[in-house]
Structures are given as C-alpha cells and as structure tokens.
Write a structure and sequence with these properties.
The chain has helices spanning 10-24, 40-50, 66-84, 96-107, 127-138, 147-156, 168-182, 185-190, 205-208, 211-222, 234-243, 246-251, 263-271, 281-290, 304-308, 319-326, 343-354, and strands at 2-7, 28-33, 57-58, 88-92, 112-115, 141-144, 161-164, 198-200, 228-231, 255-258, 275-278, 294-296, 312-314. It is α/β, with parallel strands linked by helices. Strand 5, helix 5 and strand 6 (141-144) form a beta-alpha-beta unit.
C-alpha cells in the first residue's frame, strides 16, 4: 500500500522511530513533516539519533493560534494528498498535525489510521484533548496503547475498528534508554550527579501562556534547594523572558537551565534523575518506563494508569503539594502497563489487515 504518515513534533518523531522502518519493509511510506516543531537543527538531531527516515515532504507550517495553524495545515495537506493518492493516512497522538492529517484524509475519503488512539484526560480545555477525540471519531483504524484506551473508545462508540497494540514509545524506550542512561555527558554539562537532581519540563499553553499560572510555575521551581535541571522549551523561554522572570531562574543556584535537547541527551537526564517534574504527557510515560517517580503539573492526565500505580502524582501548580510529592517513596511494583516493546510490529500487522 501507499501510506502517507503525517508528523509534526518531536514526540511523533519518536513514535515514528518504532513504526516507519517496519512499515517500509512491506509498504510504500512517505513521511510528511508539517513543521509544527520548526527548530530544524533539533529536529535533525531527532531524526539522526532515532534513525527515522527523513521526511519526503516538509510543509514548514508553524506558529499562530491553534485554529490558524490547523487551517494552514489543512490547506497544505489537501493538495498534497490529492497528488500522492495514498491508500491510507497514518497519524500519531494528539497534536494539530494529527487532527489536520486525519481531517484532510477523511475529507478525501482516505482511511485514517490513528496510533495512540483512545487516550482521554476528559479536559476539553486542552487543545490536545479536542484533537485526539476528533481524530478518533474520523479514523478507520484506531490503534490503542492500553486497555483503558480501548474502554474509552467502546464507551464513545467510535465508528472505526479499535485494536490494542501497546505503546510504540515502549519499543523506543527499551531500545534507547539503557544506552542513554550509561552516557553521563549531559549530566556533567548540567553539573549534576546521578540520582541527585530533579528533571523539570514545562510547555503546556495552560501553564506558560497564562501569566498568573506562569508565575506559579516560577515559584514552584524556585522553592527548595535540590538541583533542578530545566531544559527550556522555546515557548516557555519566550514567555518567561517577556514577563521578566527568566532572570530569577538564571540566578537561582539550584536551577540549571538548558537549551532544548535531543532525544538521547534528554533521556540520559531523565533516566538518571531522582524524580521528574513535568506537564508533558510523553514525559510522564517515559518516566514510568524508566522507573523514575513523576510529579505532573496538571490536574488531569490521559495516562491515568501511571497515577493509579502510584508512580505519578497530579499536583497542578501547587508548590507545597509538588514538593511533598517529589519526596515520596516510590512504589515497590511497576507493572507492564503499555506493552512488551513490540507495538510497532502490531501496528504494521493491523495495517496489513486493513489492506
């Protein structure tokens, strides 16, 4: 079959690392990079480190509101799909690129395959929640990472066929996390030692685009004296700079600001951290895979199993709750929640069945 895969951000590059190579052994896949994450140098690092095939097409669409960005992606993808004439369009996750790829395909009567289908935070304030719900309801084949996701789709009576394949990010983690953990160069660059620091990330619009919440984030990070490594997402850095609060973080002795990192450098810091503080869905999962306790700066999560198992705690931006959660004792057990590392194979098998 001829397959167009639409990707646009770094977590989708990671997911494609588990699928594209296997998919290309049986099918003709063309990768389309929308440009949603537009830092070309860092994107190139992800493709090189993870051995993802280079995109055949790049749309260079970034910036603007969610509505504007999605509209521009639709305008770019419509003619592209008419030209490529794929049998299937494959999308991952919950970004603007996901819903734009799915909607453009569905409107052209091309079957949509959604990898990481069925995830729900039940928070419609989040653009990601809207994107994942809409994509699920226009997809022909919904490939889920967990039984919880299957249950969500059954409850919503989606029209497409749902298949439990596991999480493709487990495949990548099993392959790369051991090697990354053994490489301490990123720790030395940050001036920290294994097990003696917290890794923090924040990029959600609900946290960084609202001044009152951004201030709470700064206060949360400034509290305490344990080393905190904080790779700055471009949007977060811009918002902090505009508000005049970036200097406070730069001057704090315990905070190590870092530029955006490639997959291996970030994974090195994650796997060697004592704990993780984040608002990212993907980082919550990667922390679980690595056996690192996670504290999530949101009041909802789509990865509810990590909370149920005690490895993840939701604290929103409550400083006291966050620091109490960071010092809890992790559970003794860490069940295999999201598969055995062969999700990519099951994705391809499900697409074969669709053919």
């Amino acid at each position: 079959m001829r397959i167009v895969t639409v990707i646009g951000n770094r977590p989708q590059f990671v997911k494609a690392a588990a699928v594209s190579r296997l998919l290309r052994e049986r099918h003709d896949e063309h990768l389309v990079h929308t440009g949603q994450h537009h830092d070309d140098e860092l994107s190139a690092i992800f493709f090189e480190e993870l051995q993802v095939p280079r995109p055949e097409r790049q749309l260079h669409i970034s910036g603007g509101t969610n509505t504007d960005q999605t509209a521009r992606m639709l305008a770019g993808l419509g003619p592209l799909l008419a030209e490529e004439q794929p049998n299937v369009v494959l999308v991952y996750g919950d970004t603007n690129s996901t819903v734009a790829g799915g909607l453009a395909a569905a409107q052209a009567n091309i079957p949509v395959v959604h990898v990481e289908a069925g995830m729900r935070s039940f928070d419609r304030r989040m653009p990601e929640e809207l994107n994942r719900v809409l994509t699920d309801h226009l997809s022909a084949l919904l490939l889920t990472p967990s039984q919880t996701a299957m249950d969500n789709l059954a409850r919503e009576s989606v029209a497409g066929r749902a298949v439990l394949v596991g999480d493709v990010m487990v495949d990548v983690a099993l392959l790369f996390q051991p090697r990354a953990k053994a490489d301490h160069h990123p720790l030395r660059d940050a001036g920290v030692a294994p097990g003696e620091y917290v890794l923090a990330t924040s990029h959600r619009a609900g946290n960084v685009d609202v001044p009152e919440r951004l201030r709470k984030l700064v206060d949360l990070l400034l509290a305490g004296d344990e080393p905190v490594v904080f790779p700055l997402h471009p949007r977060t850095g811009a918002r902090l700079d505009a508000a005049g609060w970036l200097d406070e973080l730069q001057e704090a002795d315990h905070i190590r600001l870092a530029p955006p990192l490639g997959y291996m450098a970030f994974t090195s810091l994650l796997t060697n951290a004592r704990a993780v503080l984040t608002d990212s869905g993907g980082v919550q999962k990667e922390a679980y895979f690595a056996g690192v306790p996670c504290v999530t700066m949101r009041d909802t999560t789509e990865w509810v199993e990590t909370v149920d198992m005690g490895w993840n705690v939701l604290v929103d931006l409550d400083r006291d709750a966050a620091h109490a959660a960071l010092h809890r004792t992790p559970p003794a057990q860490r069940p295999e929640l999201y598969g055995d590392g062969r999700a990519g194979e099951r994705v391809v098998a499900a697409i074969d069945d669709l053919a």
